[in-house]
Every structure is written in structure tokens, then in C-alpha cells.
């Protein structure tokens, strides 16, 4: 997306409690992985509930470019006819991963252990994001990478002829890096071993098992050691994608902040390694319960029942960051509507997301009259329980979550909150404004 397709939007304070029952789009992390594992399996994988946001569509395009057949039925089910582990073929053109760090980094893992040449690029946001974190470990498979200085996209990749299995300790908590190493290990002879210092989302491990790979996970302190036996024959397996908890977070916080609201968000993924926001909101005194808990497609799922009411400031420990890494902008908005100070600790990784989210979140709040500070890697938000002033124009920096966080804030501010560009919301949450409208929120183009 370029500047010509910018989409300014505004959010006006809710005049009545939000109410209703909605479902949010499918989980982005699981959607990328379902397409990738489907492409690496023998047979036809059917995927229901796949997120059709732009990030995931980039992954679908990339899998097609690498020789898998990816189609969508009229009823919305996706089908992937896979090529088998090691069976992907050379793409005829550059692979453009758009705005998606997950697509780019996971795909690097796949490409490292296929003996093919490829070039990968992305949009201006993705071309600023660090790729060294995957290039460095993946080079030890025998693959060769050439990038712009600093390990930035575009990237040329010459996959290894016979990839070596990796033994790697991930230096930063990152499910993307862990997954890239595991994906490379699929087509390496021998056992791949990844150690992560803190446990991060385990969708890759779960899905590898679901497709028939042998994966062992053992706890190691607050982290885990994962081993994968190389060159399994992955068998096609149907995938049911749950609602994305990272997307549910936006209507959830909106409902909590608008007094008297009563909202149910159905079929939300409840993987504990994605649950840090819920833990934090409960500590803030949020009235959220889970109904109809069940397991769907190997992932825990439930309906979130949310009632609006007062929140109080809390201290969010750094160890919680991996389980809520994408949720800090919206937690900061919740903190802005709470009584008291919220300190969110250890947010270093926020600086290398779709935007520098530590700086962008602070700017979002300050622009709307909320007292906020950054101290080292901590974000401190002072809420006074009253409606914030609002009236700001928020710079979203090509970042979907900054746009949605700002538009949720506008539900409680005295003056409307505007964003410079809401177009990137389509990367993860197509239909966001309309769905919020179903609950009674007024979020519209300007
Ligand atoms: C993701 C991992 C996280 C997260 C991203 C999705 C994944 O990134 O921020 O939105 O699907 O593995 P990091 O691995 O960089 O923490």
C-alpha cells in the first residue's frame, strides 16, 4: 500500500453502551502456518476459518509461487494441495510478503532448506524490520543469504542442497525465529533442537504434530527446549482456525471501557501462550468470563463474555511480554481509561514490530491528552478514570494495531480520535469498523 491508498478514519465517543455478539476473523499466526504446513504436506489440507487479511493472502500467494495449489471454495473453505517436505519449486518472480513479518521470517526457514533460489521483499514497514534474527541461525543450515546492509529486505536466498539440522538458542523471545528454525529443520537430515529462553506461542509445534511430525517439547526454566526429527513425511490434515485473540482484544477493550456495555465475542482462541492480555485485564478488575470452553482443531477455544465497568492501573511484569506481545497498544488504551497508573515492563521487542510500537503507543496517548512516559523499556500510563480529552490525529506508521488501538480509544474520549491511515487494518482484521459498528460504535471514514 502506498500513500495514495491512505484511509483516514475517525472514532466518536460511544453515546450508548456497546452490545451484541460478534465473531472476530481467524487467528493470523495459525492461518499462516496452516497454509505453509499444508504446502509442505502430501495430500490436500482443508482449512476452515482462515483469516483472509492481506498478510495471510501474501502467504497464500507465496505458497502458490512455490508450487502448491491453493484455492478457496465458495463456502469459504480453503484447500492446499501440498508438495511434500522438500518438494517446493523455484518461484519465477520475487516473493512479496507485504506488511507481514511472520510470513517473511517463517518463509525464510522453509526456503533455507529447499535447494532453490528466491528473492523476498515487502512493503516499506517490513523493509525496515530486522531479518538478521533469522538469517544468522539459518545460515548454519548451509543456505546463503544476501541482504541490504543491516539484514534488511529485499533478501536473496540460495537454499541449502542438503540442509544441516540446527541447534539454536533463540536470543530474544520470538515465536517467528523459533518457527523459522523448526521449518528449516523439516527438510534437514537429523534432529533440530531449538531452545527458547521464555516460552512463546507454540502454534508451530502443535501444528507440526497435527501434520504427523515428531516433536518433543520440554520445559527449561521459564523457557522450553523443542526437538524435531528431520525429514518426516507430513500428511495433509484439516485445520480449524479459531478467532484471533489478538483481534478480539480490540472489541474486548472497547466493551470494557464503555460503561454498561455487554458484548460476547465467540470462538476466540485461548492458547495460554497468547493469554497475557486477559491476565492483565483481570488484574485490572475487568469483568470478562469465558463461556462454552472447548477444543477445536487442537487449540482451546471459548466465547468471551465482557461487561463494561471501572478498571484500575496495574504493574505488568516483563515475563508476561511473550504472551501478549501484540497487545500492548490496546492494553495501554485500557490503562488510559483506568483509575491509577499502569506500568508495562520490558517492552524492548515492541520497537521492532510493524512500527516502533513503544514510541507510537506513547505518541498515540500523548496526542489525546493522556499522561504517558517511557522509562528505558517500560511504558507508564497515568489514567484518572475520567474520559480522556481526545481530539488527536494519530500517526499509525503502516501499523494495523496502532490504528485499531487509536480507534478504540476514541470510543471514550471527549473529542473524536482520528487516525491518518486505517488501511493497514486489512492486514489482520478486515471489516473491523463495520464489526465495531454492529456493537454500536461509530468509526467511520473522514
Ligand atoms: C508471531 C510472533 C510474534 C508476534 C507476531 C506473530 C507468530 O512475533 O508479534 O504478530 O505468528 O509467530 P515475534 O516472534 O517477533 O515476537
The strand line-up of the biggest sheet is: 22-23-1-24
Helix content: 25-40%
Principal-axes geometry comes out as globular
Distance between the termini: 19 Å
**Uncertain runs with pLDDT below 50, 5 residues or more?**
none
Please give the count of helices. Answer: 12
Q: Tell me about the biggest sheet? A: 4 strands, mixed
- Beta-strand segment tally: 24
> On the 0-100 scale, what is the average pLDDT?
97
List all distinct small molecules, including ions and cofactors, that are bound in this structure.
Answer: shikimate-3-phosphate
The radius of gyration is 21 Å
- Sheet-strand content, in percent, reads 25-35%
Q: Pairing-aware structural class of the strands and helices? A: alpha/beta
SSE layout and pairing:
Layout: E1 9-12, E2 19-23, H1 28-40, E3 44-48, H2 54-65, E4 69-72, E5 78-81, E6 95-96, H3 101-112, E7 117-121, H4 132-139, E8 144-148, E9 152-158, E10 167-169, H5 175-186, E11 191-196, H6 203-210, E12 215-220, E13 223-229, E14 239-240, H7 245-257, E15 262-269, H8 276-283, E16 287-296, E17 299-307, E18 315-316, H9 328-336, E19 339-344, H10 357-366, E20 371-375, E21 378-384, E22 393-394, H11 400-409, E23 417-419, H12 432-438, E24 442-445
The structure holds shikimate-3-phosphate.
Residues 29, 102, 174-176, 179, 201, 325-326, 349 line the site of shikimate-3-phosphate (S3P).
